[in-house]
Each structure stands twice: as C-alpha cells, then as structure tokens.
Amino acid sequence: MVIKKTKILFIIICTLQIFYLFQFRSGFEYEIIKDPFNKNAGISSALSSEVIESRNILNKYEVDNFNLSKNLKENTYFYQRSIEFNYPLRIDQSSKFILFSINEDINKDCKILEAGIHLRLIQC
Q1: I want to staple 95 with a disulfide (CB 3.0 to 4.6 A). Which of 13, 60, 67, 89 is the partner?
Q2: What letter would DSSP give residue 87?
Q3: Mapping DSSP to helix (H, G, I), strand (E, B) and coil, where does residue 62 land?
Q4: Which pTM was predicted?
Q5: All residues at 6 or more sequence positions from 98 whose CB lies less than 8 Å from its CB, including other chains
Q6: Angle at 103 between CA 101 and CA 106, to 5 degrees
Q7: What contacts 115, CB < 8 A, 6 or more positions away?
Q8: What single DSSP character describes residue 83?
Q9: Looking at the predicted structure, is the pLDDT value of residue 57 above 70?
Q10: Residue ranges of domains in the chain
Q11: Could you give the 3-state DSSP secondary structure of residue 116?
Q12: In terms of DSSP bridges, do strands 65-68 and 111-115 run parallel, antiparallel, or are they unpaired?
C-alpha cells in the first residue's frame, strides 16, 4: 500500500514538473498551437514588430519592389528578416519606394506615403 502511494505521488510530481517546464522554462506559447494552420500563426513570436510593420505597410500600398534606407540595411537582423518575410517582394536599389526608420531624416523632395510606429514608407 505504501509503495502504491509512493508511485502515485511520484507520477503527480513528474506531471507537475512537465507542466512547469512547458509553462515557465521553455518559452512555449499556447497561442501558436491554438491555430497552427493560420497563415499568420506565430509571427509575433518569431519576428520583431518592425519587420511585421514593414509587411503591413508594403502590402497596403501593393508595391512590387522596395528599398531600405542605409541605416536599415546596416541593421543585419532587420535586413535579413525583411527580405525573407516580405517575399515575393524584392529589394531593388532603384525602387522609388524606400522604407526608413521613424527617426531617420529624409530628403525634402521625397513624399511620405505612410508613417507607422517604427517605419515610414517614402516615395522618391
């Protein structure tokens, strides 16, 4: 009888440890598994808000290609993720649509199409 109670206690402790690991230690998010077949499932967990905003702005204006400002190109994380996440849109050095960071200065002869929280879309 004591051995049976010990086994049950051991199973309960192991189960609690597994829940603890999934909830607090692994960074696992139930939002991802809730709707796995959604096109945008897990995007906010995998990407920064700047990269997500770039896609929203570019899709709103239905551009075919775009360019990034010098400062955004130097940010290797943003540069790589924006290329990957915005595919099939391509980065083109001669594009008239340029993404700038919100705190960057722009040319006076360029027109601001959209200003978001982190980025601005400029047409030159």
Answers
A1: 67
A2: T
A3: coil
A4: 0.69
A5: 66, 67, 68, 69, 110, 121, 122, 123, 124
A6: 75
A7: 102
A8: H
A9: yes
A10: 2-34, 47-123
A11: coil
A12: unpaired
93-119 pLDDT, tens digit each: 888 898 888 888 888 888 888 888 989
Q: Retrieve residue 51's tokens.
A: 């990269």
| 73 Cβ contact partners less than 8 Å away, ≥ 6 residues apart | 79
Distance between CA atoms of residues 41 and 86, nearest Å: 16
- In terms of DSSP bridges, do strands 119-123 and 111-115 run parallel, antiparallel, or are they unpaired? antiparallel
- Taking 3-state DSSP, the helix, strand and coil percentages for the chain, each rounded to the nearest 5, stand at 50, 15, 35
Residue type at 116? G
- Taking the alpha carbons of 69, 70, 76, 77 in that order, is the dihedral positive or negative? negative
* Element at 49 (helix H, strand E): helix 49-60
* Maximum pairwise Cα distance, the chain: 85
Residue 47 tokens, joined: 């990407």
Place of tokens 């790589």: 80
